[in-house]
Amino acid sequence: MRYAVSIPPFTDAATVIALGREAEQAGWDGVFLWDHVQWTAGMPVHDPWVLLGALAQTTERVLLGTMVTPPTRRRPHVLAKQMTSLDHLSGGRAVLGVGLGEPDDLDFSDLGDESDKKLRGAMLDEALDVIDQLWSGPTDHTGEHYRVKADFVPRPVQEPRPPVWVAGVTPNRKPLRRARRWDGVVPIAPYGGSLTPQALADYLALVPADDAQSEPWDVVAPWAEGVPADEYADAGATWLVVSAWPSEEDWVEGLRKVISSTL
Q1: Which of 36, 46, 77, 126 is labelled catalytic?
Q2: How many domains does the chain have?
Q3: What is the pLDDT of residue 102?
Q4: pLDDT for 192 beyond 80
Q5: Which string of b and e fits 72-96 if b means at least 16 CB within 10 Å?
Q6: Domain housing 81
């Protein structure tokens, strides 16, 4: 089992970087950042990719990435280039977490981006194929949503490519089927709730692995307070993740306490 912290970059940038460094020093295995453009009125929201670049230079061991990025509002060729740069800056410690994204209004329709979830799902599938091609070599893609002709260098440090983890709200099967085609799944409990080990096991059973699934394949589960890690491992988790709800008062100090005292 490995352990990660998922930080909302909704405070001053220096605090986000400090939390990431503290997580590495405390023995955590991964530091991930939420990816949003807006959240609530008056709340500061920083771009995760800029901050991840800073974390790559101020950490040495932890895996780094987003949890999660919606490629439908980040053009796939730009996202492929950002991930490659992060992979180089970090010495091969980059992970791409993807999902449909939310909220539909603040992060999508209010900014002129597609808000329909079904259409965003189709765009996500195509975007992942484009990104994979761009990481691998010359690309000449013409699809329903994207047209890309490019040969990007440098390639990522990791071979054959950085891991791709796909998020999905339980108990929806479609994101789990999508995740089985890549390198891992990030199950999200509905309505911001916690995910018990039994609920995790039940979800994974909805779409069993097949021969085409990559190995290793990660299950990156939210860690409910007070539940032993062994119970999640028995349910299929390979990672446990803690985070904070940024609308709660003193969420930064609460997350800092979790980082310093949990492992």
Answers
A1: 36
A2: 1
A3: 87
A4: no
A5: bbbebbebbbbbbbbbebbeebbbb
A6: 2-261
**Known catalytic residue at 225:** no
Select the more confidently predicted residue: 191 or 13: 13
pLDDT at 113: 85
Of 102, 114, 145, 231, which is the active-site residue? Answer: 102
Place of tokens 């059973």: 205
pLDDT in tens, 140-150: 999 999 999 99
Tokens of 170: 């339980």
CATH number of the domain where residue 202 is located: 3.20.20.30
Residue 102 annotated among the catalytic residues of the structure:
yes
Phi, psi at 158, each rounded to 5°: -75, 145
pTM above 0.90, yes or no: yes
How much is the pLDDT for 41?
82
